[in-house]
Amino acid sequence: MKLPLLQVETERLIIRPFQKEDYESWLDGFNKRLPSQYKYDDGYHDMSSSTKEWFTEWIRGFDEAARRDEMYVLGIFQKEDGANIGKLELIKILRMDYQWAMMGYSIHNQHWKNGYGAERAGFSFECTREAFSMGNGKWADFLIYYKNNETNK
Fold first, then answer.
1. Which residues form a coiled coil (predicted)?
2. CA 109 to CA 125: how far, in whole Å?
């Protein structure tokens, strides 16, 4: 079964599934992280064990989860240079006569204070609507509750 491509473009960003060609951009995003900026920020990560082979398997797991309609993990990329600045996760909670899902995201700390979180939030809802359209091409109706930690930068 071929999955529909969940992709949304904003003025500055592209939100889409990771592809194996994204490895260098993905790794670069982690390697350029700044030291921790606040108590919930992990800061720099040691990525020495994150090989291209590991990355390929990691995103293959995302494809399998999407095929099972359990979870959708999408990369957030700058349109200008293709830099991976973070990711978006859509996790199915329940499908009935309504669609219930949870959405989370992370932006690498070197990209904070550029408005990407807010820009991503609005367009993430478009990805959510697409992923949870009940397969009939019609938009699903759902309620979104957005809560941002006030200490986030």
1. none
2. 22
* Residue 51 φ/ψ, nearest 5 degrees: -80, 170
Superfamily of domain covering 8-131: Gcn5-related N-acetyltransferase (GNAT) (3.40.630.30)
Higher pLDDT, 116 or 114: 114
pTM over the 0.85 mark: no
Torsions phi, psi for 32 (to 5 deg): -100, 10
User: Which of 72, 67, 62, 59 is CA-nearest to residue 131?
Assistant: 72
**In 10 A of CB 142, how many CB atoms?**
13
Boundaries of every domain in the chain: 8-131
pLDDT of 77-105, one tens digit each?
A: 999 999 999 998 888 888 777 677 788 88
Of 85, 105, 104, which is closest to residue 26 (Cα–Cα)?
85
Mean pLDDT of all residues in 115-139: 57
